[in-house]
Amino acid sequence: MGKSAGQPEVQTESLCGLIVVDKPVGCSSMDVVRRVRRAAKGAKTGHAGTLDPLASGVVICALGKATRSIEHLMGLTKIYEARVDLSALTTTDDLEGEREEVAVASPPDPQRISKTLQDFVGNIRQKPPRYSAIHIDGQRAYKLARKGKAFEVPERQVVVHAIDVLGYDWPMLDIRVTCGKGTYIRSLARDIGLSLGTGGHLASLRRTAVGAYTLSGSYPMDRLPEPITRDHLRPMPVLLPDA
């Protein structure tokens, strides 16, 4: 069957580059990959960093030989805008989990919050959520948690470059977090609350940037071009050999 009149011909084997997608709440990063792959007529596609279904924002998809750059892209600095609910803890450290209300006699004032946030800037030790994709003895932590298994999640070191307060109206705290690879914003929300003596879980999350790739240069997932052609792609980063 020949191609339809007026439809550009796409050579999937020649597609090589990046496309930045604004992922909506409610779908997974792999849903984004499948959507991009379909629009790219089956071209090899991968993503450079997972966003939970409850989060939205920047997901970088690499096509063709650009998938070789995924590890590099995953190491780029990320920026998130997060809303933290200080009124309760949850089993998942976000809205999906079972709530445990925390009684707070006197909500922390803005000065105390600002001071506490600075304790989480720099190289910090962080324990990922029990409901996360990290491996524990060869199994995903979230699978063990769903089965009610007893296990410990090991701490690891991550880097947080900055935390800025965007707004505060008890119990909701809005922050912007600039951080490195592997930082769990859910864990940050939980630990900030514990440090304040309040609850703490993630009420919403939006990733606004991965390195130089921002929302302003992204395609909303429901408005991806079809078909995706080379004209829609950004070039693959120049990867320098190890010294």
Brief description of this entry?
This protein has helices spanning 29-39, 70-74, 110-118, 141-146, 185-196; strands spanning 17-23, 45-47, 55-63, 78-85, 88-90, 99-101, 122-126, 135-136, 139-140, 156-169, 172-179, 201-210, 213-214, 219-220. It is α+β, with helices and mostly antiparallel strands and 243 residues long.
Question: What is the helix content?
Answer: 10-25%
CATH class of the largest domain, named: Alpha Beta
Count of the domains: 2
CA-to-CA gap between the ends? Answer: 51 Å
| Percent of residues in β-strands | 25-35%
Main beta sheet: strand number and arrangement? Answer: 10 strands, mixed
Query: Mean of the pLDDT scores?
Result: 89
CATH superfamily of the largest domain: Pseudouridine synthase
Which structural class fits the helix and strand makeup?
Answer: alpha+beta
Instruction: Spell the H/E element sequence.
Output: EHEEHEEEHEEEHEEHEEE
Question: What is the alpha-carbon Rg in Å?
Answer: 20 Å
Q: Low-confidence segments, ≥5 residues, pLDDT <50?
A: 1-5
Total of DSSP H or I helical runs spanning 4+ residues: 5
Q: Which fold does the CATH topology of the largest domain refer to? A: Pseudouridine synthase
From the spread of the alpha carbons, the general shape counts as: globular
State the total count of DSSP E strands.
14
Corresponding CATH architecture of the largest domain: 2-Layer Sandwich
Defining traits:
Pseudouridine synthase; ten-stranded mixed beta sheet; two-stranded antiparallel sheet; 18% helix; globular
